[in-house]
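Write out the 3D structure for:
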Amino acid sequence: MSKEKTHLGHIILITLSAAIGGFLFGFDSSVINGANGALKIHFNATDYQLAWAVSLALIGAAVGAYFAGRLADKFGRVRCMLAASGLFLVSAIGSGVPFGIPDFIVWRVIGGVGIGVASIIAPIYIAETAPAHLRGRLGSMQQFAIVIGIFVALLSNYLIVRIAGSANNVCCGGFKAWQIMFWVEIIPAALYGIAAWRLPESPRYLVQKGRLEEAKEVLSRIDSEGVDKEIASIHDTFKNEKPAKLADLLEMVGGKKRIAPIVWAGLGLAILQQLVGINVIFYYGTMLWQSVGFGESDAFLTSVISSGINLIMTIAAIMLIDKIGRKPLLLIGSIGMAVTLSTLTVCFMSANADGSLPWGPVMWVMLGEMFNNRIRAVAIAICGLAQWGANFVVSWSFPVLAGKGGIGVGPTYAIYSFFAIFSIFFVAKFIKETKGKELEEM
């Protein structure tokens, strides 16, 4: 697609609409930060029960991520966004009125499935809609929306606590502050559904289903030049191909099948992003600050500040991703993680624990574009499953490892530091640059 004929306004509108799913991804996963302490008191829960309440939502996310690719190939990207919107809406309502920890977990798992679906569908949709010369920057909007969602969740939690005095105090209409925290999500969940309803379907999905005229119409609204050539190029990648399945992720080497190197690369990116402890500060930050002597309001404010730093660094990554490339940013992020987490290991501090800021936007962009058209949905689903599985392991284990019966915060961060150092070598050896390439070239 030519840069001159690209309808930038329309592309940005599509990207922003799809990225609302990323906002909900960030909001839903982080809103628990402000509520977990109050939930523990309200239900007289143990540390282990709280760990399950926080982490089991990530199992839902893993399930949603795994099936999202297949559902997207069968029903379309837009319908999957609509389904995710409904899941977020149900979860937001139910999480604010639980009878106990068990049904609270159910509501959170439902929201987790929505997170998993949104985490996979948005990168696929944006990658398949944006032209190559803008794809990295537009794909980064997914991560930008995620960190905005995290920031807004923590900010709204802080404001609600400032009004109520405590997360466990009655705030508005006779409801407790922690209940209001969850209900704030109803607004963006509804907006996501409305926006998705108005989105055009992915041109690559339409070509795959033989709906060529519809695909031409969508592409012409994105770039009015070279539509027929683009259709032919996309169609060639699907010609005489069976629907993608797990076996397509294998390749023959020496008469034996093995997982393709590109899939290993995607799995490595997805898993390492979590094993450095990136989400610990967003799930448990408020409780951590209170545990080292901060008052409740100050602990909430510190979480907001940490999230604000995350937001600023993500903007920097978005501005640089199409200029210096994906791999250099990953290496910069890996080195930053290694230094920051190693320092925190010594200092027993977690305020700036998110040393992997450039990894967030770059990882999701690369997962959306590093696989070829035929296997993209299945490959991203597997990588998404791995990412959420690793997220669950870290999120469940942190309160256990850092608690009274565990090894402590310092040694726990030493584990994260090890994986940060390992990520430097992993990126240098196994990750290939995808900057400026058409998806059909992958």
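Confidence is low (pLDDT under 50) at residues 1-5, 349-355.
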